Amino acid sequence: MKLMGGAALARALPAHADDAHPGVVRLLVGFPPGATGDRIARAAAPVFAAHLQSNVIVENKSGAGGQLAVGLAKTGPADGSVLLQTIGSSMVIYPHTYRNLPYDPLHDFIPIGTVATAPIAFVSAPTVPAKTLKEAVSLIRQEPKLGFYGSPASGSVFHFSGVLLQRAMGCDFTHVAYRGSAPALADVLSGQVPFAFLAPSDILDHHRAGKLRILAVTGTARASQLPDVPVFPEEGYKELVNQEWFSYFLTRGAGAATVDRYRAALHQVVTDEKVRTALLTSGLEMGDGSPTTLAQTMNREYGQWKKLVAEIGFVAD
């Protein structure tokens, strides 16, 4: 698949398209009510509605790790009546792990921008005596029974964050795949699995209550809600910077005026104080809403994950 430059991807709009102003906008979210993506969409929807002067209805189309919503958006009308909110994994990891993905993320959609990002947290069970990442790595190297980590899904950014850490440590660190965050979290809390990579939004309260410990998070800057927790690069693990991101896309074929309206509306979303408060208190970080930044991120991470997946030979289906 040929990659487009970030600016080119952000600007690649059709010369002729219907720029009608839809009265109702379907905001497709690939996860169930209550999930992080759903909470983001419901916080953003009123701001989108006010700026677009349309009714914005959040539709939860959960299934296949978000693939269902992306596929529906691809085949939906390109008149601005369908807005996709999806995670980065759907666009930059799944193309390399699924052999029959029903969409092409780089060519089937027009990037609008990123509303939020989520660092990936590396946590230890209460039964693990390590208080720091350095101590945890030492224990993993010395005690084979601690060389396991859980994640919400095989082939996810959480899973592959563990692969990156395993490579950096240079020792065995076996992945234990769960079906969702809830069972992975339950096994960490009970000590059934010693470590896990999870989303901060799922574990902040447990961390604050001392029921588990967040040892480090991915990214280049400390998380707003976790100022005392280091990012991996601070501890010498420079490879672990990738985060999950939540971004908006329109179906390829939307006209320039429609795209401009949505990009202006997203700017209102990311600068809205109520949205900001809702996202930050959930353990998320605000995105910048820039289509160019999103396109550049997609191109960069698309290549990074393609390389890793090929090297470990992972296939999801």
Question: What structural keywords apply?
Answer:
12 helices; 6-stranded mixed sheet; globular; 11 strands; 19% strand; alpha/beta; 317 residues
- Helix-strand sequence: HEHEHEHHEEHEHEHEHEEHHEH
Helix run count: 12
Write down the overall geometry.
globular
- Could you give the order of strands across the largest sheet? 2-1-3-10-4-11
Q: Structural class, from secondary structure content?
A: alpha/beta
Strand coverage percent: 15-25%
Number of strands: 11
Question: Rg to the nearest angstrom?
Answer: 20 Å
The amount of helix comes to: 40-55%
| Largest sheet properties | 6 strands, mixed
What is the CA–CA distance across the termini? 20 Å
What is the residue-mean pLDDT, rounded to a whole number? 93
Uncertain segments are none
